[in-house]
Amino acid sequence: MSVFTELVGQDAVVEQLRQAAGSGTPAHAWLFTGPPGSGRSNAARAFAAALNCEQEEPAARGCGECRTCRLVAAESHPSVKLVSTENVTYKIDDVRELITTAQEKPQGARWRVIVVEDADRMTERATNVLLKAIEEPPPHTLWVLCAPSPADVLVTIRSRCRLVSLRIPPTAAVAQLLITRDGLNEQQAQFAARVSQNHIGVARRLARDPEARRRREQVVTLPLRLTSSSAAIKAAGSLVEMTQADAASTAEARLEAEQASLRRSLGLEAEEKIPPKLRSQFKKLEEENTRRAKRAVADSLDRALIDLTAVFRDVLSLKLGTGAELINEHLREELHRYAESLSAEQTLAGLDAINAARTRITQNVPPLLAMEALMMQFLPGRSRA
């Protein structure tokens, strides 16, 4: 299976990356941009695999079957560094460490590739530290930066990178991927693709996890169930609790996977007691998991707000009589009744209120306070201006 399999509906991008990987002289710095769900991180990883793929034919690069492709997919290739941050921003020391890594020659590979996810989280100082390394990289090193848009990266970096622009894949393409790769039936795949707004990772999780579907259903029906101020305050608390539970579930699964991987690398059986001299390594994983918790809650809450945005987009579509399929098509009847209680202006104001809540969360406003203010805006008859 090709490493580019998840880049559904992006044939032009896949061809661009294959040609670059097979050219022998790819650009030394790349910037992959696209909205959440476009697969920019997946594309960057696939490109790193294709650059070092053991296939000699350029058209076959990124085969997904050779040892190199499998190691990159498992994030264990010694010459491919995949970097992300669980903090609000990258630390300067982290960037300096990357620059040191970039000077090392690749081990058993054509290229040393450094993939920096969320490059938009670099401060100006950290970016300036990175600038010289990108301007004058070693001949064997490629930098691949990922960000939502070119504007999210300093122009001094942007001007030195080859741009790859990705877009959200079509619903039909995401559904087909879920059918062929994950074994879903057509109804499951279509539902998951549509309500995830074509985000492949979210779609897969919704299709596989009944609890994730239940939590989403509770979120998207919140505005439809509010009748009083006390109900709004209670709903805000429930929403924050749900997102915390969702984040905790994701963090727990990740910690278990990391601990299992560490056990394998240390030669420990699944139930074997950890020797005292190795306990510090497992303790470090637990500490990192704790640090990830705050961002995980913020990310989960942001996903809930995206789902609420979809509700008001559906309502606006019904108000304007567009005839388009709704994101929450399974709630059409309930949304139609809700739409009758709002004007188009109030619906747009609801969208503005959700965007304001998303901004407040990024500005470190306490999540519960931000959600209480938002839920009050959803009360029937309340002005949303």
- Derived from helix and strand composition plus strand pairing, the structural class reads alpha/beta
| Alpha carbon gap, first and last residue | 51 Å
Low-pLDDT sequence parts: none
- Strand tally, please? 5
**Strand arrangement in the largest pleated sheet:** 2-3-4-1-5
Radius of gyration: 23 Å
Question: What's the helix-strand series?
Answer: HEHHEHEHEHEHHHHHHHHHH
Count up the helices.
Answer: 16
The main sheet comes to:
5 strands, parallel
Written account of the structure:
With 385 residues, the chain is an alpha/beta fold. The chain is 58% helix and 6% strand. It has a five-stranded parallel beta sheet with strand order 2-3-4-1-5, with helices on one face. Helix 8 (186-195) packs across helix 9, helix 13 (279-320) crosses helix 14 (332-340) and helix 15 (344-362) runs antiparallel to helix 16. The radius of gyration is 23 Å and the shape is globular. The N and C termini lie far apart (51 Å). The relative contact order is 0.09.
Quick recap of the structure?
The protein is α/β, with parallel strands linked by helices.
What labels describe this entry?
385 residues; five-stranded parallel beta sheet; alpha/beta; 16 helices
Topology:
Blueprint: H1 11-23, E1 29-33, H2 40-52, H3 67-73, E2 80-83, H4 92-102, E3 112-116, H5 124-135, E4 141-147, H6 155-158, E5 162-165, H7 171-182, H8 186-195, H9 200-208, H10 210-220, H11 222-225, H12 229-266, H13 279-320, H14 332-340, H15 344-362, H16 367-377
Parallel strand pairs: 1-4, 1-5, 2-3, 3-4
